[in-house]
Each structure stands twice: as C-alpha cells, then as structure tokens.
Amino acid sequence: MKLQQECFDAYAFPGVIITVPKGHPYIPEFDLVAKEFGGVKGRIWHRQVEDECQHYLKTNIGGSYETAGIVDTMLDNTPVPLFEDTELIEQPDSICLERHMEIAGKRFVVRSVFLKAAASTPTDKLLSLIDKEQEK
Predict the structure, then answer these.
(1) Contact 75, 64 (CB under 8 A)
(2) DSSP 8-state secondary structure symbol assigned to residue 131
(3) Is the pTM of this model over 0.70?
(4) Residue 33 and residue 31: Cα distance in Å, rounded?
C-alpha cells in the first residue's frame, strides 16, 4: 500500500517549533532535550494532495480521501491519526468515526461504529474472511 501522507515529529518549545522527519537518527536526543526543557512532542502530517477546489471541479466530489489531510486526535492519551474532516465520538461502549461528504450535489454522512468490547478488530475479521476464502 502506498503511503499517501508523510508524518513528521514536531517538538514545541516557547517561541519555536522544530520538525524532524520520521526515522531521523537524532530523535532520541530530541526526546531527551524536549523532556529536559519542557518541550512538547507531537506529530505533523504533510499533505500530498492537489488543491481541494481543483479536485472538486474535476470529480464533483467534496470530502474525498484524496483531499483530506490527516490530523491527530487523542484517544486514551494516545494520538490517533484521522482525516481532518472526520469526527471521533466516544461513547461508553463504542467509538464512532463520522465523515461528511458531498458527491454530485448529494450530501452523505458516513459513520463507522467500533465496539470497545469487541473480541477482534474489523481488520482481524476481514483477514479471517480472506484466509477462509483462500482455504476454499
């Protein structure tokens, strides 16, 4: 699968933000400096997409994955990468991801619900189904 957007580490200090590409050999040193001087580490997602307006004019689709950047949303003190037009709604028994899209003038709300107490993830279930098909 081709990586669509690149992620950078960002270290924020009063008055300055330092960005470091993923896999940089000095990341452990940056982590120590951030800890010692009270810096905050986060992630920045680089967008590698065409202009949203041009994409809409070509395809008549607004809210597609090609034009949505990635942002981190915190869930249980862990950054979760989501498309910037996706809302994460946490319920007591589930997590809901919701996107609003417009295709050919029609508005759609796409909602995915993931149970917190699920025995396996949707990806696990899909892989299991693929394995069963392969066995046949």
Answers:
(1) no
(2) H
(3) no
(4) 6
